[in-house]
Structure formats: structure tokens, C-alpha cells
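Bug report

Summary: C-alpha cells for NAD(P)-binding Rossmann-fold containing protein differ between web form and batch submission.
Environment: batch mode, default settings.
Steps: 1) Submit the sequence below via batch. 2) Compare with the web form result.

Sequence submitted:
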Amino acid sequence: MSSVIRKVALVGGSGRLGPYLLKALHSDPAFDVTVITRTNSTATFPEGTKLIKVADGYPDDEIVKAFKGQDAVILSLGYQGGQHHAALAEASKKAGVKRLITGWGGNVANQEAMEIFPIGKKVAEDIKALEAMESPEWSWTAICCGLFFDFCLEVGFFGIDALTKTATIWDDGEQKFSVTARPTIGLAVTKVLAHPKETANRRVYISSFQCSLNEILDGYKTITSSEGWNITKVTSEEMVANATENVKKGENVMYSIGRLGLATAVKPGLQADFAAEGILDNQMLGLETNESSHEIIAKVLKA
């Protein structure tokens, strides 16, 4: 069987990550990309994008037909779409697809981190299921990219607000963690597709850079001014306990799940710094990044 991957189907071409994956694929002449979208979706795509529409719920017969003839399928499903992950993976295998690409989380190999963060735990379980599906004709890759750095800045995920000059710093703020900007995630996908043998049936770890909460705060101060900031210090144990309790009670659930997601990056001992752990795959992929936290913070604040 030829290992060359050219025809690529993208499920989830809109949302937080999908447009960046689509742009990277469109920009690389090595790939012929088709977006699989739901019939009732109101998402729009760049002119000339190949589309296949399927019914809501991704019925198996329609999905298998849509996947036929594709070399690879990329799943960018988001939180709500995660329920369809297993069925879509099975459909890709039925359709004769060579490679399934999924993931988009942190270090899913760290058991403590996955127990803290319910969405991460679901991703880890999905990857475990893919391992059981492996065959000579079908393989998978899970991309572990840490937090989406640019998106996290846009929504105030790190607890730092330039307008009010307030920040919440966990522990001493020095814990390093890997993050990736979404354009770099898109580029990394093309690199994975170009290295099918090296990336088969494994987690691939990428990052734009490693940073800490203190470094992010320093970036804000450099751009806005270092004066007048109100800094609140909290402990990761306290934040995890409170957020976990809120999820159990059904109070501020999405915010609390977000805090648990941040905990997997900033709580010590969870192996969130891919470079320090010796698991970073940028070099293997030929993924070169010249980004810095301050540069991306400046872009977001100016926008």
C-alpha cells in the first residue's frame, strides 16, 4: 500500500481550530482537501472549497461514502462533536482511509492531568480506542499541542486582563508549559501528513514555545505598562478543588472546566512542558517556529 497522502477530508472546518487547519491545507499544493460539513450547518468557507454535506448526527452510511477515496481524515470536532469521535473513526476505517488525525490536547499520557480535566480524559479514552483499531491498512495520529495560545489570549483564559490590569497567578507563576498558536497547529498537520511513517499510531507533540504565567503577564506589562497592576495569587490545589466541586454541583460548569484545563498546564508535575520532558516532535517534523509569547500577545491586544 502506498504511504503517500494527498486527498484529505476535514471534519470540522469551522469553529475555533478548523479554519486554521483548512487554510494550512489549502496553502500546501501537496494536498487536495475536502470539508465534510453538516447539512444544517451555517458555517461558511473560502471560495472554491470542496464541500460534502451530510445529515446532522453524521449517519454512518453517509460518512463512509464521504470518506471513500480519501487518504486521510482529520477530525476537528470541538467539545460538542466529541460524541461522534468513535463512529467517525470506525467510518474512516470502513472507507479505506489510510490515516486518521485527531487530538488537539495537552499531554494525554499523564494520568493525573487527565483525571483532573474531564475533556482531556475523554480525548485520552478516544486515543486508547484508536490503538485497538490499528491495522496494516489504517493508522492514526493524535496531535498534542497544549493550549491554543492565541485563542486563550483572546478569551482571557489565562486570567490576565489588560483593560482592568488584573491578573490571577497560580502558585509562583513559574511553571513552564507548552502552547501552540493555531496557525502553527495547521502547519503541523501538513507536516504530519508529509511524514506518514514517522507519525503512525502515536501521539505527536508540538508547540510554538514553552512559557509560564509570569512570562505571559510580563508580556502584557511590556505592551501596556508595568504600573498599576493588581495581582492575585492562588494555589493550584485550591483552584482544582474549587473547580472540581463546582462541576459536581453543576455550578459555573463551563468556566470551572476551563479552570481544570488551565490546571493541566500550570499545576506542577503534570508534564506539560513538552521540551523539558524530551517528547517534543518539532524537529522530527521539520516544524520551525519563530514565534514568541510577547509577539502574539501584542497582536491580540492590537486586534
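Above is the batch result. After comparison, the two runs are identical; trailing whitespace caused the diff. The chain is about 45% helix and 20% strand. The chain has a mean pLDDT of 95.
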